[in-house]
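User: Can you predict the 3D structure for this chain?
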Amino acid sequence: MRRMLAAALGVAIAGAAEAGAQPAPSPHPYVGMWVTDDGRVRHELLPDGRYDEARGTRESAYRGRYEVTGTHIEYWDDTGFTADGDFVDADTLHHGGMVLRRRPAAGSGVR
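Assistant: Here is the predicted structure, written as structure tokens:
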């Protein structure tokens, strides 16, 4: 009886873990660092669907998850704040009244 109960409990736990699992984010071309022209705001879009935003000297001022659909991005901050934006071309993001530009990856040779 204990074995049956333990097996049933194991199946229930495994099913709950699968039900709560987040699907892998869909790939998109916007992963990387996005920065305002004055360098004050910096968004790093990570490939796992998370972002890290720095403001001025405050690193990791905001963190959360994001989803990209086409050229539109939705943000959900870990504190519950939401925001969105639009990629107007491959290197320009309009977000919250700001214009952010793609910063080439270090060592990419692009300046």
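Confidence is low (pLDDT under 50) at residues 1-19. The beta strands are 32-36, 41-45, 50-55, 58-69, 72-77, 82-89, 92-95, 98-103.
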